[in-house]
Design brief:
Elements (H helix, E strand, L loop, with lengths): L2 E5 L3 H13 L3 E5 L2 H10 L4 E5 L7 H11 L4 E6 L3 H9 L4 E5 L3 H16 L8 E4 L2 E4 L4 E4 L2 E3 L3 H12 L4 E3 H9 L9 H13 L9 E4 L3 E4 L5
Parallel strand pairs: 1-2, 1-3, 3-4, 4-5
Antiparallel strand pairs: 6-7, 7-8, 8-9, 10-12, 11-12
Helix pairs in contact: 2-3, 4-8, 5-6, 6-7, 6-8
Length: 229
């Protein structure tokens, strides 16, 4: 039974989500402010955190920063509908996904399952070791090293990198990446995939020769550069 932590100061919404998600087979705990949410996320070892942006004592962005300093626990941000800036900021800070309010509990449950699958479940192509140039991925242990040094990635970032690295030298379309990694179809103005790729570029840096590690084919998809020799 996956353990979920819901951090939201809306008591009625939290109760509704707790009842629904419990009925879907999840163990749900709640926190009503950012400070309490950070403590529960770091000390309670949940499998996933549902984190609202607008929180008392500590807003969701600052709470996420503190969580990411010590943990890669999957996080779904709850944002205001139409507020693209909040969604992008949350993803840049390390959120795995977002959901705009208002939303249905059924939609949240589907997002939770998708994030848990890519954070803890089977990766596309199965488990094994993937080595491309200075990049070494252990997909069974979900660990990545670049030039022998460990690189900390979120579950979504790791799944994205694993798929791109397995297909190094080939272009992987946006449709495939959305389906296999994010578990949904791409929507108009949805920049989730682009922000996750940007995070990977920042964490991994360029190739040893200074070339860009992940190339963009605008309107088509992304390609992890295969190093020859």
């Amino acid at each position: 039974m996956a353990r979920l932590l819901v951090v939201d100061d809306d008591v009625e919404l939290t109760a509704l989500l707790g009842e629904y998600l419990s009925g879907e087979g999840f163990a749900v705990t709640a926190a009503a402010d950012g400070e309490a949410g950070v403590r529960a996320a770091l000390e309670g070892s949940p499998d996933l955190v549902v984190l609202d942006v607008m929180l008392p004592r500590l807003n969701g962005f600052d709470a996420l920063r503190r969580i990411r300093e010590r943990s890669t626990v999957p996080v779904i941000m709850l944002t205001a509908r139409g507020d693209e800036v909040d969604r992008i900021v949350g993803l840049e800070l390390g959120a795995d996904d977002y959901l705009a309010k208002p939303f249905s509990p059924r939609e949240l449950a589907a997002r939770v399952r998708a994030v848990l699958r890519r954070s803890h479940g089977q990766l596309p192509g199965g488990a094994g070791r993937v080595v491309v140039g200075d990049l070494d991925l252990d997909t069974a242990a979900r660990q990545v090293r670049r030039g022998g040094e460990r690189v900390e990635l979120t579950g979504t970032e790791f799944s994205l990198l694993a798929l791109l690295a397995r297909e190094a030298g080939n272009v992987v379309t946006r449709q495939v990446l959305y389906r296999e990694v994010l578990g949904r179809r791409p929507l108009v103005y949805d920049r989730s995939l682009d922000v996750h790729v940007s995070n990977l570029r920042r964490k991994l840096g360029p190739l040893p020769d200074g070339e860009e590690r992940i190339k963009t084919l605008r309107g088509v998809g992304y390609q992890y550069v295969r190093v020859e020799g």
